[in-house]
Amino acid sequence: MKTLQDKRKRFSFFIASSITSVIWILWHIPFFFVAGTGQSEMSFLLFSIMVLGNSFALSAIYRISASVWLCILFHAVFNAFSFYWPAGQDITTTIISTVCLVIISNIIVLLRDGKRLKQHK
């Protein structure tokens, strides 16, 4: 995740996470054309909205822990439970879930960065 570290130096958490989400959306496009994948049965719009929320959550996890393994674990757990979670099935649930992930991720990072600033003073 060297690219995320580089973006952290140049961009805010919000901008870096947004850029990452666009890259992830582009990365997953081929799966929409492969039968049997979760993406092939989903709306591209709903998937893109979900990726946006997950991008913020994963960026926050990495920013706080500096652990790629925790990000991999989060991604695996999300994928495993996505069959049971209604997000991605309708626009309202997907938007609400994404907004919650973005807000919570930003709050966690702001609180964490604030604590670090106080420790350095």
From TrEMBL:
Organism listed in the record: Kineothrix alysoides
Protein name stated in the entry: CAAX prenyl protease-like protein
Gene Ontology annotations of biological process type: CAAX-box protein maturation; proteolysis
PANTHER family listed in its UniProt record: PROTEASE (PTHR35797:SF1), PROTEASE-RELATED (PTHR35797)
CAAX prenyl protease 2/Lysostaphin resistance protein A-like domain residues: 9-81
A GO molecular-function descriptor: endopeptidase activity
This protein's UniProt keywords: Hydrolase, Membrane, Protease, Transmembrane, Transmembrane helix
InterPro entries to which the protein is assigned, alphabetical: MmRce1-like (IPR042150), Rce1/LyrA-like_dom (IPR003675)
One Pfam short name: Rce1-like
Membrane-spanning parts: 12-36, 42-61, 68-85, 91-111
